[in-house]
Amino acid sequence: MIAVAIALSLVIGISLGLLGGGGSILALPILRYVLGMEAHDAIAVSLLVVGTTSAAAVIPHARKGRVRWRTGIIFGFAGMVGAFAAGRVAHFIPASVLLGLFGLMMITTAAAMMRGRKQSADKTMEKSDLPIAKVLAEGLFVGASAGLVGAGGGFLVVPALVLLGGLAMEVAVGTSLVVIAMQSYAAFAGHLGHAHIDWQTAGLVTASAVVGSVIGSALSGKISPEGLRKGFAWFVVAMAFFILGQEVPRMFGVTPSMLWVLLGTSAGVSLVALVAWALRKFGVIAEAPPKPTPSA
C-alpha cells in the first residue's frame, strides 16, 4: 500500500502548487485509510507533509514575484498561535470526533471551491491599508482548524488574502503557501509528544508530495484552475461523506460495513448535487458569467 500512497501523494503537491490549498484534504485520508495510521498519528504526519510541501512550493512562486511576504508572515504568525494551541489539546478529543469534524470541514471547503473566488477589486492596496486586526483574527481561526484536525486551510487562506489583503489571485495563491507552511509546522509541534511519527513513511510521502508541488507550481499561471477546482470540489464532497460514513458510526461504537459507507457516500453526493441545482435554479447562487471572447 505504500506504493499506492506515494503515487497518490503526488496529487497533494500538485493541488498545493496549483491551487494554493487542498493538500491536507488529500494527505489525511491517504495516511488514515490507505496506510491505516491511527487518526491522531495521521493528523500529525499530514501536517508535516503539508508544511514541507507548502514550503517547497513557495520557492517557484517567489521567483515569479507571486508572494507578498509581509502579509503572509503576519497572517502566518497568527495562524501559528492558533495551530500550536489546538495541536496541544487535539489528543484529548476522540479520534472519531476529530475525523467527523474533518469531514464537515471538507464539505465547507468544497462549497467554497464550487462558488469560486472573486478577483480582488483593488489591486493597488497599499501596505498601510492592510486590516491587521482582521488578518490576525482570521489567522487564529484558520490556524486552530489546522492544529485540531490537520486541515491546512488553503481554501480559507486564499479568499482571506484576496479580500483582506487586496492581493491578486495568483499572488494570493503563492502567499497562502507561506501561511500554510508556518501554521502546519506549528500545529505539528503541538502534536509532538502525543503522536507516534513513522518518520520513514512520512519522508516518502513528503518527498512524493514535494515533487508534485514542483509540477503544480509550474502549471500555475499557465492554465486556468477553475475547471480543476470545481472537479476537485466534487471529489472533496465524495471523500467527506466517505469519512463521515466511516467515523460517525464509530462515535456510537458501531463498526460500519463498506457497503453502507459507499451507499452513504453516494447518497450524500447526490444530496449535495440536488441542493446545488436548487440554489442555482432559484438564483441563490448565480452562474459564472461567460468570459469575454478576445477580439481579433
Describe the protein's architecture and organization.
- The protein is mostly helical and 296 residues long.
- The protein has helices at residues 2-19, 23-34, 39-63, 69-89, 95-115, 132-149, 154-163, 169-191, 199-219, 226-251, 258-281.
- α1 (2-19) packs across α3, α4 packs across α6 (132-149) and α5 runs antiparallel to α10.
- The longest helix has 26 residues, at 226-251.
- The protein is globular.
Provide a short characterization of the protein structure.
This protein is mainly α and 296 residues long.
Secondary structure: number of strands: 0
Q: Determine the number of helices (DSSP H or I, runs of at least 4 residues).
A: 11
What is the percent of helical residues? over 70%
Q: How many separate domains make up the residues? A: 1
Radius of gyration: 19 Å
| Class from helix and strand fractions | mainly alpha
Question: Which oligomeric state applies?
Answer: single chain
Task: Give the biggest beta sheet.
Answer: none
Strand content: under 5%
Characteristic key phrases:
11 helices; disordered C terminus; mainly alpha; single chain; 296 residues
Question: Helices and strands in order, then pairings?
Answer:
Elements: H1 2-19, H2 23-34, H3 39-63, H4 69-89, H5 95-115, H6 132-149, H7 154-163, H8 169-191, H9 199-219, H10 226-251, H11 258-281
Helix pairs in contact: 1-2, 1-3, 1-9, 2-3, 3-8, 3-9, 4-6, 4-8, 5-10, 6-7, 6-8, 7-8, 10-11
